[in-house]
């Protein structure tokens, strides 16, 4: 199983947020960022694309239609899946993405290649923290019991975050931690913080990816820097090596100092081999 994990695209054609307008206006267009991903990744080796929330920045149904078409066009023929973030407005999301008129939580699950993938809607409108209500907790408990497959959990908000991003996690994490602290759960994969992190709680491993839009860095005095750092993650599970989560940087552009092809790498590695 190999997944292209994108998050926090924050697409909008006309942002009306005075705090983030200068940040989003300064970003390289999403289409160019997606093309950089295509330059680095072989889509033929992936099984799906997952976008973990803040797809649109409080925009319109047309914004959702536009970003959906862009993602599908860029990463075709891979199946694309979405979950909702705190800047996604549910009625607007449904109208733009599915043509439905509804305001329901967007929780769902599916099976692929003997993996059970569960997508949770942790979004709480007009709040940076996330939550699952009692109905969602009950749904999650039933869904977890469906099978004994390896499970991959995707949601926008990290369940836990430590002191680094303690204000950006879930408000009531205990029940969720209890349900997901399960040997069948390979990992929980999130976005929201715009900064990559790994959190481990007993059996549970949580991986937070870069944002595609912009980066956030918290420094020693508590100041938060909005940066041009952006990226994505490659999630891969193989029977012979287990789980690998590889964060990738899109920007800032790095300087290439040297390039080696696979044969050169093999030759280089052989120079370190020696006989006893």
UniProtKB/TrEMBL annotation:
<keyword id="KW-0479">Metal-binding</keyword>
<dbReference type="InterPro" id="IPR029052">
    <property type="entry name" value="Metallo-depent_PP-like"/>
</dbReference>
<keyword id="KW-0408">Iron</keyword>
<dbReference type="GO" id="GO:0046872">
    <property type="term" value="F:metal ion binding"/>
</dbReference>
<dbReference type="InterPro" id="IPR050884">
    <property type="entry name" value="CNP_phosphodiesterase-III"/>
</dbReference>
<dbReference type="InterPro" id="IPR004843">
    <property type="entry name" value="Calcineurin-like_PHP"/>
</dbReference>
<comment type="similarity">
    <text>Belongs to the cyclic nucleotide phosphodiesterase class-III family.</text>
</comment>
<dbReference type="GO" id="GO:0016787">
    <property type="term" value="F:hydrolase activity"/>
</dbReference>
<feature type="domain" description="Calcineurin-like phosphoesterase">
    <location>
        <begin position="1"/>
        <end position="196"/>
    </location>
</feature>
<keyword id="KW-0378">Hydrolase</keyword>
<dbReference type="Pfam" id="PF00149">
    <property type="entry name" value="Metallophos"/>
</dbReference>
<protein>
    <recommendedName>
        <fullName>Calcineurin-like phosphoesterase domain-containing protein</fullName>
    </recommendedName>
</protein>
């Amino acid at each position: 199983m190999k997944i292209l994990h994108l998050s926090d695209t924050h697409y909008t054609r006309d942002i009306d947020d005075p705090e983030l307008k200068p940040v989003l206006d300064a970003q390289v267009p999403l289409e160019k960022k997606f093309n950089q991903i295509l330059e680095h990744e072989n889509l033929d080796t992936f099984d799906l694309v997952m976008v973990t929330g803040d797809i649109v920045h409080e925009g319109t149904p047309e914004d959702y239609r536009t970003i959906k078409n862009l993602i599908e066009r860029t990463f075709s023929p891979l199946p694309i899946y979405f979950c909702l973030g705190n800047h996604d407005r549910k009625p607007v999301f449904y109208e733009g993405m599915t043509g439905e008129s509804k305001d329901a939580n967007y929780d769902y699950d599916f099976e692929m290649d003997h993996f059970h993938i569960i997508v949770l809607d942790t979004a709480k409108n007009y709040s940076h923290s996330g939550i699952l209500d009692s109905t969602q907790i009950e749904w999650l408990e039933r869904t977890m019991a469906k099978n004994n497959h390896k499970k991959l959990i995707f949601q926008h908000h990290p369940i836990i975050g430590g002191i680094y991003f303690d204000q950006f996690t879930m408000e009531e994490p205990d029940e969720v931690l209890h349900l997901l602290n399960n040997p069948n759960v390979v990992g929980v994969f999130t976005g929201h913080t715009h900064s990559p992190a790994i959190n481990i709680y007993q059996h549970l491993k949580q991986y937070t990816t870069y944002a595609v839009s912009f980066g956030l860095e918290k420094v020693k005095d508590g100041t938060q820097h909005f940066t041009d750092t952006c990226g994505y993650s490659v999630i891969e599970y193989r029977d012979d090596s287990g789980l690998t989560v590889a964060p990738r940087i899109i920007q800032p552009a790095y300087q290439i100092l040297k390039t080696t092809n696979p044969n050169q790498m093999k030759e280089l590695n052989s120079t370190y081999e020696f006989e006893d």
